[in-house]
Amino acid sequence: MNRYVCIHGHFYQPPRENPWLDEVEVQDSAYPYHDWNERVTAECYARNAAARILDSNRRIVDIVNNYSKISFNFGPTLLSWMQDKDPEIYAAVLEADRLSQQYYSGHGSAIAQVYNHIIMPLANARDKRTQVIWGIKDFESRFKRKPEGMWLAETAVDLETLDLMAEQGIKFTVLAPHQAKRIKQGDQEMLWRDVAVAKVDGRVPYRCYLPSGRQIAIFFYDGPIAQGVAFEGLLNNGEYFARRLTDDFSASNPQPQVVNIATDGETYGHHHKFGDMALAYCLHYIDSNQLAQLTVYGEFLQKFPPVQEVEIVENSSWSCVHGIERWRSDCGCSTGGAPGWNQKWRAPLRQSLDWLRDQLGPLFETQMAPFTNDPWGVRDKYIEVVLDRSEANMGRFLQNIAGRVLKEDEKITVLKLLELQTNAMLMYTSCGWFFNEISGLETVQILKYAARAIQLAQDVAQVYLEEGFINRLAEVISNVPELKDGAHIYRAMVKPSVVDLLRVGAHFAMTSLFEQYAAKTNMYSYTVKSEQYDLKEAGRLKLAVGRAVVRSKDTWEQATICFAVLHLGDHNFIGGVDYLDQDEFIKMRTLMTNDFLESDIPGVIGVIKDYFKYHNYSLWHLFKEEQQRILNQVLGSTMDDIETSFRQIYDHHYPLMQIKNEISLPLPRMLMTVVEFVLNQDISAVLEAEDVDINRLKQLVEEMKRWSFKRDQANFAFLASQRISSLMKRLSDNPENIVLMEKIIAILELLAQLSLDLDLWKSQNTYFAMGQKIYPDIISQAGSDELALRWVKLFEHLGTILQVNIKGH
Q1: Does the pLDDT value for residue 661 go beyond 70?
Q2: pTM here?
Q3: Residue 739 to residues 689, 729, 736, 791, 800: CA-CA distances in angstroms?
């Protein structure tokens, strides 16, 4: 068969970690999920690892790993997050690449990506090289093989980038059709044919010769079909999707052809709900009906090397019709925004970051000179540490790059310099320019990377770049009048995130009032080793005084800090952290403890002010996650009081409210709020209980049906879905537990009466796995074993509710 189909998914999220904590903090806009990585993983990345194929009754008959049948790349920073936060899906992605090598002549589905999605033509040569090297090394570490291809961020391309990729052994990349300039077949110059208007034939690969004499293969994806997938509803029907792909072959051409498309991977499930299922059915339909042979780029390239040459349109991309202007000017490409908004902020933002990069480069070279003759080569190798921050691995790296045993302060200096350069690259992540406003999450994120680089430059070289950077940001005008400009946004949205050892100490001190820590504890990307800790309590008042060693896992910087924090109840904290010597600490602790024991609270506050002066901290200095957690704790009694009052109103006025409801008279909004609150609290409590009380749940469902109020659908459905998933997992671990199966069925049938949009994806996965492994054994016993027969009937009934046709597999 000479007809091939290759579907490529570019799966990517920008790095979202707080640069000081190496942790993604809560993002309210991703509700009910913790953050956008978690949400998009649930809606897309997980779904494609276990995509459904349905029968004619829309019941699941098979669950497949889409990644094993398509070509794909994952952003390295996204995979790093996934490895830590969702190892099950991470393992499924790696397994898909291993499986695909069995399908595609030893060629894997996965290709590499330039490391943190920078627009390569706008980068300097050093950053381009590091991005390519880091992307390859990250890929090799995860997929345990060398990548054949590499994805360019936004497919933004120039010849220098392609040359660097070829130098590092990359065989091919994928571009949009409008990025081909002209093509020819043969060696005669007169045979060049302009395809900028006529469009390139994307059904064959092309050879691109590079300035160094190297060459790289380029695939140009089918633009109209990719457009149809992303924006025109092609994913509404998997069979139609398959037909659209296979109708694109040239009937008059007997040579091997590959119809290939490339889109954001998030199209399949996040941007288009059920897009993962459409993709799965499309692949199944093509394969089972032998409409074409599925392939990946590496396999097709090996079987059918390019016979035509191409010249590219340099400084072009797939998502900006103006080339690469979307990432440096007000070209008109954006994601919208309010009327009158513009993107004039893009140019001065890039200029500000370029200025900072060019200040940091010479500083890096100068400060690294005592340790190496090749500072940029060392930066290229630093990916070894980014991938494995264990003390042993970091120690080996430092020994190897210096060729000698470094002193402790030298190790810290080297690590800080390399972290500085890491952040100097992260601050160019393309998403910072992609959207419509400088105050958006993505742009604020790249400014945080800039702030971290500035801080490290000050630490290692006493070079103060922040004022110059802020002055330049003042030229970056926001579309939101009250946010003014980049300088204001930097001070308001970036500076509060800046962390140093003292702030880590303050965080430890305040949270220690609510949590008992071990002698040595991990706190994000730091460790805190307590040397002395005293906690005193008097009614609602608490006083913690202590000394601790705070150490960065990333740079190995450490210091002994002293702290005192007074909690006056509710959200009122007064505290201080500083570097005190032993004598000062003892004196401070004695004075403060005596005043506290004598109930002299003004005296305690006075001691804090005397000893900690300008290093005073409060609740607002806590890291965001703990701010929320501690506020919830200190507000706990308030919420209890509110709940008690609401329940008294509910109980006292229930007969009157019920009469009004029965005769269809609307309740006053205040009373309806009480009903909503009480019933939501009650049903949530039942679902969260270790043993769900079915009778109580039934009563509450009946009660909720009597009232016409709108529930918090997103949060309630989220909670209910998680609970059912956990019960299904328990059933999978103890499949003989018929009582538990009956309980799950009862819960599902009751919740169905509330018309909730339950996410039963994990539960269906668990059921499907049980159907493959356990169901066949038990059904073989059902003829003579009444218990087994009962189990089978219940299990099949559960499958009907979960919409899984286990018999159809």
Answers
A1: no
A2: 0.92
A3: 17, 14, 9, 10, 18
